[in-house]
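Researcher: We plan to redesign the surface later, but first we want a full-length starting point. Tokens attached.
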């Protein structure tokens, strides 16, 4: 029987609700039979709320803060990140609210290993303000996309995509709430697919079998 056990690392930049949700679902404390091992959480922003949350509530998670706010810090960040990836033999790099752009070189070296979540139905509303942009535009349907990362920003083979309807009574706050709730559900689903070896990329498309 094949062993599908996967080591993952989570990258986050801010609040970290997606990161916390993944930890709650897959940390060894909560699941002794999990096929997903969270080897570390890496934050690029020393002021991010996620840092204190992990320190206070998840002392068993290896937490790394590698400063990367300015573009000039990217090389050092990626060097540190690569060391962590090698140290823990990481299979998948999970971007969970990671708001910086990784270099083409890093992405190409880790092709088909980096997964991102984006709060819109890509290719619509790329960028760092997707929820607000969709709301301001007045679209009736937006959603969430989870995809493999390629050098082109907010692009790459789509793993899972689900819609969120914007009703007349929605505000930006209620829309954000709906999107985050869906994101949490979807990231777990994708990680479960990975842990069962059910994802394959062929011809630039993700197949779930
Ligand atoms: C999430 O909505 C995520 O999709 C988005 O940032 C938020 C982070 O929330 N990511 C992007 O916009 C990436 N381009 P969280 O810190 O509470 O997980």
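Model: Full-length starting sequence:
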């Amino acid at each position: 029987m094949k062993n599908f056990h996967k080591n993952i690392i989570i990258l986050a930049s801010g609040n970290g609700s997606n990161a916390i949700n993944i930890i709650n679902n897959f940390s060894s404390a909560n699941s002794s039979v999990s096929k997903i091992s969270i080897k570390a959480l890496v934050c690029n922003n020393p002021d991010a709320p996620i840092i204190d949350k992990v320190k206070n509530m998840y002392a068993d998670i290896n937490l790394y803060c590698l400063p990367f706010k300015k573009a000039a810090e990217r090389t050092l960040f990626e060097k540190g990140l690569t060391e962590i990836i090698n140290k823990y033999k990481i299979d998948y790099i999970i971007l969970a609210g990671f708001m910086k752009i990784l270099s083409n070189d890093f992405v190409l070296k880790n092709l088909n290993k980096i997964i991102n979540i984006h709060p819109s139905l890509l290719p619509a509303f790329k960028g760092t303000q997707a929820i607000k942009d969709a709301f301001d535009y007045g679209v009736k349907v937006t959603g969430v996309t989870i995809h493999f990362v390629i050098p082109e920003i907010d692009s790459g083979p789509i793993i899972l995509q689900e819609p969120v309807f914007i009703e007349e009574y929605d505000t930006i706050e209620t829309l954000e709430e709906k999107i985050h709730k869906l994101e949490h559900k979807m990231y777990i689903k994708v990680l479960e697919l990975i842990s069962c070896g059910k994802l394959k990329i062929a011809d630039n498309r993700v197949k779930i079998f």
